[in-house]
Amino acid sequence: MTYRLDSDVLNTHGTVKRNTAPKFHSFDRLRKNWRQKKIMAIWPVSHCHTFGKREHFVEELRKYMRVYIYGDCGNYTCPRGTKCHQKFAKEYFFLLLFENTLCKDYVTEKLYFTLQFDIIPVTFGGADYKALSRTTFLHWRPRIQDTKTSGRLSQKHFRRIRLV
Predict the structure, then answer these.
(1) 91 CB neighbour count, 10 Å cutoff
(2) What is the distance between the alpha carbons of residues 107 and 109, in angstroms, rounded to a whole number?
(3) pLDDT tens digits, residue range 5-61?
(4) What is the residue-wise DSSP string for the chain?
(5) Residues in domain Fucosyltransferase C-terminal (predicted)?
């Protein structure tokens, strides 16, 4: 029993299914929500040093933009759960969901939970995210050794958000 899609018994953190009654929010409401946000990104994290070296990527990304770090590895705390995600969605544009290691098919439980809030998840992992609509998240899979990737991500996606 594993999270691998090719395992005999699949055990994942969540599933994705088509929403038969999609909720549409007016563009005016979305624009108002986004104009109230003040900080580009948040990274909730409990494992500070990882095999995937995600912490180096975030450290480099912080040279280009403000990233608030919540949890055991940062200066901010918020208990897990809906209230915390509501706070994140109100204040931040992006939620960094970077895996400890880049394992095939593994998706963090935070991604499934985050999709119901007004915040854009940024994934960094080994999973195939084809089941998700491409408009619901950003997937970034840089070469870890390439320190320029943080700057490219910042310039390509994060800075454009101010145009809303």
Answers:
(1) 14
(2) 7
(3) 676 776 666 666 666 776 666 778 888 888 888 888 999 998 888 877 888 888 888
(4) -BS-TTSSSB--S------SS-----HHHHHHHHHH--EEEEEE-S--S-TT-HHHHHHHHTTTS-EEEESTTSSB---SSHHHHHHHHHHEEEEEEE-SS--TT---HHHHHHTTSSSEEEEESS---TTS-TTS-EE----TT-THHHHHHIIIIIGGGGG-
(5) 34-139
* Amino acid code (one letter) for 137: F
Express each pLDDT in 47-105 by its tens digit.
888 877 888 888 888 888 889 999 999 999 888 777 888 888 899 999 998 877 777 77
Domains located in the chain, CATH noted: 40-163 (3.40.50.11660)
